[in-house]
Amino acid sequence: MNVKELFHSAARIATGEVLGRLATFALYAYVSRHYGLEVLGIVALGQAVAIYVVEGSDQGLKWIAVRLLARNRGLADYLVPAVSRLRAGFTAVAVLLGVAYGLYGPLPAAARACAVAFVLAVIPYSCALDWVAWGLGKFGVLASWRSGVSFLYVLIAIVGMRLTDRPISSMAIGNFSSAALGAMFLWLIWRLRWSNPANVVSPALAQAAHQELRVSRVMTLGSSNLLNLIFLNADILILGAMSTTHEVGRYSVACKPLYVMFTAFWLLTDVLYPHIAAVKDSTRARAALFQWLVLLAVTSAVCATALGFLAPQILTALYGSTMGASGLFRVLLIAMPLDFCFSLLWTVLVSRGYDRFVLYGLAAAAISDVALNWIFIPRFQAEASAWATVASYALLFTMMLVFVLRNDVLSHGEAEEPVPSPAEYAL
């Protein structure tokens, strides 16, 4: 792995992604200042429902396709139609379920139309070929797409609010329009620059790719991604069902800055993923992994401590006041080292094909998170969600670490790991 090339790739994608995230965050700060926590809570619920639909439309297709492209770029023209067909079917089912949840699920009445509108925006998003850019290492294009979609979303939403003074409908229209334009941009790049119809894929490679894309394999990784999503934001939906939009807004105020902070590291793992998938067996890889893990844990813990001391000032600078969320922000900061270390281990395991173990770990964390939220939200409101997040992160990271310590996960390129005994991960 070329460290200089890795740095340049990370810098390109980070520049675009961070700018896009900051633009989106500025939009939420604008909404909270001009329309209050109630509107912010409604939008947060709509986005939470839509994110589940996005995962349902994708399953594990993007991750598997990127893994295949990283090993053989000549598969691109074979994979684009194959993945697109599978994704169209998954998207149809996911959008129908999402619309049904938006109309009839346990949501506040004020949030139903917003949820449906954000769910429908998944249709153009599912057509995007961002995974092709990712797998081919075209991080400049990927960064342009991500930041461009975010800037278009913010621009259309703010113009709509200024003209109509209707924040929710303006944001919903901006979300759909930006996703559609972004998908068109990537398809144009594919047609003009990346596609090579004359490229012939050997029967052996096509068969290997077909095996990787079989529905059972895709849905195993897709289930992992869905469980990861449940683990990450089920608290928003449960708060919406068992509390008020005010509490949802207060919790969102604490979460949004953290998502911006986490973005930088998640981008690095995105860049690392195709490189790790292509790495050959290495006797030094395991030692290097643990050295980086220790460094990451110490550095992120120091950063989280410093941010905790500055919590009131950070929130006031962003929102005009703390919005009553300083305590929530400090609790969630405890999860920062756990999230970073888990994300590194997750990237390694998925890139090496350990899909089933990842599924088991995320299932345990998701069940833990949902149960703790369900039990404690009625009494402790948003504070319960914050502490449930920390506890579930601790469980998930511990399971991942125990597995990596007991198995040489970097010695295999395409692991179809045996089903491990539950006792192996008993704590």
Plain-language structure description:
The protein is mainly alpha-helical and 427 residues long. It has two domains: 1-213, no CATH class; 258-427, no CATH class. The protein has helices at residues 3-58, 61-71, 76-104, 112-120, 122-126, 130-135, 139-164, 167-194, 203-212, 215-242, 245-278, 285-309, 311-319, 326-333, 335-351, 355-380, 382-406. The radius of gyration is 21 Å and the shape is globular.
Write the layout of secondary structure elements.
Elements: H1 3-58, H2 61-71, H3 76-104, H4 112-120, H5 122-126, H6 130-135, H7 139-164, H8 167-194, H9 203-212, H10 215-242, H11 245-278, H12 285-309, H13 311-319, H14 326-333, H15 335-351, H16 355-380, H17 382-406
Helix pairs in contact: 1-3, 1-4, 1-7, 1-10, 1-11, 2-3, 2-11, 3-4, 4-8, 7-8, 10-16, 10-17, 11-14, 11-15, 11-17, 12-15, 14-17, 15-17, 16-17
